[in-house]
Design brief:
With 134 residues, the chain is an alpha+beta fold. The chain has helices spanning 4-14, 52-59, 86-95, and strands at 17-22, 28-33, 37-39, 42-48, 62-68, 73-83, 110-123, 130-133.
Length: 134
């Protein structure tokens, strides 16, 4: 049975996953992302408050993530809820030190979203799907 740790490990293994949101005109927007952490029992991602993706998530918190490792894919559907704790921002940036060229936990721009009220589904063509509740 897959766990939240398996979800995080899969996203870290693939390196790049794709995050879907809805823009201000109701159109889908998908872009590559690469940050993931488990903090306080929640899967979390990071972006900048100045980016359109941040505005889109605040306007409509339902997001989807999709990643593929060559034989298995992961689809996450959840609400992204801002986690404004400094510790969460620092932890994420410490895990991804290359981001420190653009972000700092105290810059007022770094933003962490916890993924809640959703599920992560592991799928492949050769095995039954496995679902992890978020």
């Amino acid at each position: 049975m897959k766990t939240l740790e398996d979800v995080s490990a899969f996203l870290k293994k693939v390196g790049t996953y794709y995050l879907g949101t809805v823009d201000e005109d109701g159109r889908p927007r998908v872009r590559p992302f690469g940050t993931v952490d488990i903090f306080e029992g929640r899967l979390q991602i990071q972006t900048g408050k100045k980016k359109a993706v941040s505005r889109q998530i605040h306007a409509n918190p339902w997001i989807e993530i999709c990643a593929f490792d060559g034989s298995q894919w992961l689809r996450i559907s959840a609400q992204a809820v801002e986690n404004d704790k400094r510790e969460a921002r620092k932890r994420m940036l410490d895990a991804y030190p290359s981001l420190r060229a653009m972000y700092d936990e105290d810059d007022g721009n770094t933003e962490i979203f916890a993924l809640v009220e959703g599920e992560a589904t592991f799928s492949s063509f050769t095995a039954p799907s496995e679902v992890v509740r978020l």
